[in-house]
Write a structure and sequence with these properties.
There is one protein chain. The chain is α/β, with parallel strands linked by helices and about 350 residues long. The chain is built from 12 helices and 13 strands. The radius of gyration is 21 Å and the shape is globular.
């Protein structure tokens, strides 16, 4: 979905003053990373490692797993498409609403797709993958770690892709790779781009059994992870950089934004365990609201109407600084008031 993601700020240039459309923490301090990359800028003069092996070794040590169970990718997105390619033609169960790239990747590689888990055991082929985004995008809700662990272990016949790209944006417990080393039907997908707030550098990774990792590496193209991304990843891991300085305080502010949005008549704000939240608006469309906020306040939100399972009333926002969050609430209230005047 090239044109369907959040953070489409590139479309609007200087018009955007506050970006609520990206789920990535926006107040990260890049000073040290910039200095390091400038000191090592000469890496762009040479080909990077074709498979980012050094970074994989660092990750494996950090995670407490074997090197042959980790694969670094160009963002979590490359991981998703590689998995879909490896299991071309399989059945995929993708509960909705969720991240749209699962469906796009599966369609590209001729998967039989279902959106409902209720009757899959009777209807779907035995060769199947369950795609689970946890924390889920766009809703922000988190499935209980123990339940996921139980499901995966109780159904070894099926494969499970558990995308934990937003694990660093919640306080809820996540599946730990080193706790899953004895499970061979699960692939854990993670995003260093989101963890370190560097989405422009595209860094992700998969943790899975050595057999699955080996097969994935056989079908991937070389040099998909560029030299600057590898250098940034190595620096961040080596120095254990925390780009979100106080996650607990950030989530408290997100909860305050959730509460304030909930007070606006005509808005329904879904429960979230993360920094972002899904909202529906009555008597309007998300696209109209998005356009109005941009034109009148320079505020960019994520129109979520193109996500399967959602209609054109849904949008997603991510908590920013307190004063920016207050402006968002003020702006949406003004829009609702204006709509009420027109229809009244």
């Amino acid at each position: 979905m090239i044109n369907g993601h959040g953070d489409d700020v590139f479309r609007y240039g200087d018009k955007v003053k506050i970006n609520f459309s990206s789920n990535v923490y926006s107040q990260a301090d890049y000073t040290a990373l910039k200095e390091h990359l400038m000191q090592h800028f000469d890496v762009v003069a040479h080909y990077p490692e074709p498979d980012a092996h050094t970074l994989e070794c660092m990750l494996a040590e950090k995670l407490g797993v074997k090197e042959n169970t980790v694969m670094v990718t160009s963002g979590a997105n490359e991981a998703i498409y590689l998995i879909a390619q490896l299991y071309k033609g399989w059945a995929s169960i993708i509960p909705q609403p969720t991240f749209s790239e699962y469906e796009d990747a599966c369609r590209m590689f001729n998967h039989v797709i279902s959106y409902d888990v209720k009757d899959e055991f009777d209807v779907m082929p035995k060769d199947r993958i369950y795609w689970i985004c946890n924390p889920n995008n766009p809703t922000g809700n988190v499935l209980v770690k123990g339940m996921l662990n139980h499901i995966v272990r109780q159904h070894p016949r099926y494969l499970y892709v558990i995308d934990q790209s937003y694990a660093d944006y919640t306080l809820a417990p996540m599946l730990d790779p080193k706790e899953m080393t004895d499970v061979f039907n699960v692939m854990l997908v993670h995003s260093l781009s989101k963890k370190f707030c560097i989405p422009g550098l595209r860094l992700g990774y998969i943790v899975a059994s050595p057999i699955i990792i080996g097969r994935l590496k056989q079908i991937r193209q070389p040099w998909t992870v560029n030299a600057l991304a590898i250098e940034a990843g190595k620096y961040m891991l080596k120095h254990d950089v925390q780009m979100i300085p106080d996650l607990k305080a950030y989530l408290v502010e997100a909860a305050r934004l959730h509460q304030n949005l909930s007070t606006i008549a005509g808005l329904k704000v879904m429960k979230s365990d993360t920094n972002f939240m899904l909202v529906s608006i009555e008597n309007s469309t998300a696209s109209d609201l998005k356009r109005w906020l941009l034109d009148n306040y320079g505020i960019l939100i994520r129109d979520a109407s193109n996500i399967s399972g959602l209609d054109n009333n849904y949008f997603r926002v991510t908590a920013q600084r307190a004063e920016e969050n207050d402006l968002l609430v003020e702006a949406i209230q003004a829009y609702v008031d204006q709509q009420n005047e027109v229809t009244g």
